[in-house]
Specification:
seven-stranded parallel sheet; disordered N terminus; Rossmann fold; ATP binding; DNA binding; OB fold (Dihydrolipoamide Acetyltransferase, E2P); RecG_wedge; hydrolase; 695 residues
């Protein structure tokens, strides 16, 4: 029995040397399908019901629905008006129907010759030529050919890989695979889970009487089993990675001495209760002889930097070096200025290391680090270059850790001495919802600063149509006359016709012309670091009234006098980015305002984002909604480098399964007799791809 899927007809082109033909195996490998088990776990994304045929007359009465009909070809012709197309007329004893193909191959014309019996499936419409199906799926069959007894699976596919090839490959793999269950029988019984083999087979070949809605929304018990297995593999892998890390040695940084005490005493403010709590957690970890792996979460402006500096002080008190790595030079510079101002009066040598340093400056900084004279090193990814060698690195602090790839964080961690691994503190101003933390960060200890320092003014957020731009400019002018400063953030540097966005340079020129009595500055990623710093310094000193910028000012910039934030084309930014940008204001005592300029009409997602920004300034609530809108893959950013994202489990609806998987993983790892079961389960679901976990 032949089955055909339609492809666009090839365009005529100049003769080329014949390309090497990709094999089905290489096409499958591109989808990550290398082993039999990979194929078996490549589950359908939807199903087509080919178990019934309706007569043509009934299909015509249904109209607008997907139907499967069967008939004999009575007419086959190529028409040229209004465009070239293949028209095939089929008939059964109840009526006639036209199949229309806009793109077709010569072989299809022969295949669908008059007298051929065809089974066609598609949406039936009543067009200009009567009842028709446009580009239906079809098979050439013999009279009396049996119908399938189960729903037909439709698999996620890649270029040049037909459903027919996928179905055959999966069916072959299912005959060869080892079906032994890798979840202990007592867990299956206690959780009332389906057994692995029948669950997988049902998902590939659902019987006619199956609940199609439960299959579609993935609430069917067979789907529950797949989700649980996937989450269990992830939890086992993360917890095993955590154990492996704990088996490694780290310097026990036991001393909270004179530097820590002097530093805390010199601060012009008292730590909040939340800061004191997380500092206690970090200090306890640093005293251990195995490497700390802690994520420090805190909303924009909650005071993570001072906690990180106090952790660094403990390392220095204990006779070790500390390093702080930030994703951008502006953020690294903010940290350097702030922390050096705290530490250097106390006799600590702080080194500055970034890619933009001149050769001589870089060599001098590198020498300070290598000799151990520099007790604290602050910089960008320049810290992880081969030329940088530490004398005695005890603590690594990574800010905005999701902006770095796994490999970059691993390189910095490997800068420890001999077999000792430095302690690692990662900071994030993007709060991570609980279920996400439990799945993707299950190998980390998590500390949360859940209160803001006193004296912070709430920020009022308004969404404003681009048509009211002149009013916004007037508002900026009024704020400047009252002695306040403003940010104006743009999403692009150069004009893009496709997006029709205002650019930073154009906005700068417009504002400079509209506000001749004010000083307008411009910062974007293409400026040289020294030029960028000059403008930032002038803004921090109050000499620049309005700072036009791209998102280089997204994190870390701290100018208490800035109380107005205008975000151009706010509909183009993600929620977490909007929240970070808004966090640049509200740092002083003046009432602060964030204006979200948007271009009408707004799409559904953009509307949701702007509504969220208007309704709340709580970073954790924003993160929760962001996860709802975007899903975990996009939310996690660069952290997913080399990391398998969840394919089947949905953190919104399957949170209860995460809890169960975590508990089962913990229990299995506690019992030596389950070691082979754990290995088999990880091999089945990760196929030896465990090494990406976890930095």
């Amino acid at each position: 029995m032949a089955e055909t899927t339609q492809k666009a007809a090839p365009a005529k082109a100049a003769a080329k040397p014949p390309a090497k033909k990709a094999t089905a195996e290489s096409k499958l490998a591109k989808l990550g399908l290398r082993s039999d088990m990979d194929l078996v776990l490549h589950l359908p994304m939807r199903y087509e019901d080919e178990t019934q045929v309706v007569d043509i007359r009934e299909a015509c009465l249904r109209g607008g629905h997907v139907s499967q009909v069967e008939g004999v070809v009575t007419k086959n012709e190529i028409a040229y008006k209004p465009r070239r197309q293949l028209l095939v007329q089929i008939a059964d004893e109840t009526g006639e129907l036209q199949l229309r193909f806009m793109n077709f191959y010569g072989s299809q014309v022969k295949q669908l010759a008059e007298g051929t019996r065809v089974r066609a499936r598609g949406e039936l419409k009543h067009g200009f030529f009567g009842a028709e199906m446009v580009h239906p799926a079809y098979k050439i069959i013999n009279e009396g050919a049996p119908l399938p007894t189960s729903l037909t699976p439709v698999y996620p596919s890649g270029e040049g890989l037909s459903q027919l090839v996928l179905r055959r490959a999966i069916a072959d793999a299912m005959r060869r695979v080892d079906w032994r269950d890798t979840v202990p029988a007592e867990v299956i019984e206690r959780m009332r889970l389906s057994n692995f083999e029948p669950a997988v087979k049902l998902l590939h070949y659902p019987p006619q009487q199956v609940d199609e809605n439960a299959l579609a929304d993935r609430s069917h018990p067979a789907w529950t089993r797949m989700k649980f297995d996937e989450l269990l593999a992830q939890q086992l892998s993360l917890k095993r990675a955590q154990r492996a890390r704990r088996s490694k040695g780290a310097a026990a940084l036991k001393k909270v001495g004179t530097l820590s005490a002097a530093f805390q005493a010199a601060l012009p403010f008292k730590l909040t209760k939340a800061q004191q709590r997380v500092l206690t957690e970090i200090r306890a970890d640093l005293r251990q002889a195995y490497p700390m792996q802690r994520l420090l979460q805190g909303d924009v402006g909650s005071g993570k930097t001072v906690v990180a500096a106090l952790a660094a002080a403990q390392a220095i008190d204990s006779g070790f070096q500390a390093a702080l790595m930030a994703p951008t030079e502006i953020l690294a510079d903010q940290h350097f200025r702030k922390i050096a101002a705290w530490m250097e009066p106390l006799g600590v040598k702080v080194a500055w290391l970034t890619g933009s340093l001149k050769k001589k400056e870089k060599a001098a900084a590198t020498a300070l680090v290598e000799s151990g004279e520099a007790q604290l090193v602050i910089g960008t990814h320049a810290l992880i270059q081969d030329t940088v060698q530490f004398s005695k690195l005890g603590l690594v602090i990574v800010d905005e850790q999701h902006r770095f790839g796994v490999g970059q964080r691993l390189t910095l961690r490997n800068k420890g001495q001999g077999d000792l691994v430095p302690h690692q503190l990662m900071m994030s101003a993007t709060p991570i919802p609980r279920t996400l933390a439990m799945t993707y960060y299950a190998d980390l200890e998590v500390s949360v600063i859940d209160e803001l320092p006193p004296g912070r003014t709430p920020i009022v957020t308004r969404a404003v149509d681009q048509n009211r731009r002149d009013e916004v400019i007037e508002r900026v002018h009024a704020a400047a006359l009252e002695g306040r400063q403003a940010y104006w953030v743009c999403p692009l540097i150069e004009e893009s016709e496709a997006l029709q966005l205002q650019t930073a340079t154009e906005t700068y020129e417009t504002l400079a012309a509209a506000l001749p009595d004010l000083r307008v500055g411009l910062v974007h990623g293409r400026l040289k670091p020294a030029e960028k710093q000059e403008v930032m310094d002038a803004f921090a000193a109050g000499e620049v009234h309005v700072l036009v910028a791209t998102t280089v000012i997204e994190v870390g910039v701290d100018v208490p006098n800035a109380s107005l934030m205008v975000i151009e084309h706010a509909e183009r930014f993600g929620l977490s980015q909007l929240h970070q940008l808004r966090g640049r204001v509200g740092r002083g005592s003046a009432a602060s305002v964030c204006l979200l300029l948007y271009q009408s009409p707004l799409g559904h997602v953009a509307k949701q984002r702007l509504m969220t920004m208007r309704e709340t300034t709580d970073g954790f609530e924003i993160a929760r909604r962001d996860l709802e809108i975007r899903g975990p893959g996009e939310f996690l950013g660069a952290r997913q480098s080399g990391q398998a994202m969840l394919r089947f489990a949905d953190l919104e609806t399957d949170g209860w399964l995460v809890d169960q998987a975590r508990d089962v993983a913990h229990a299995l790892l506690q019992e030596p007799q389950h070691q082979s079961t754990v290995d088999a389960h990880l091999e089945r679901w990760l196929g030896g791809r465990e090494e990406f976990l976890k930095v």
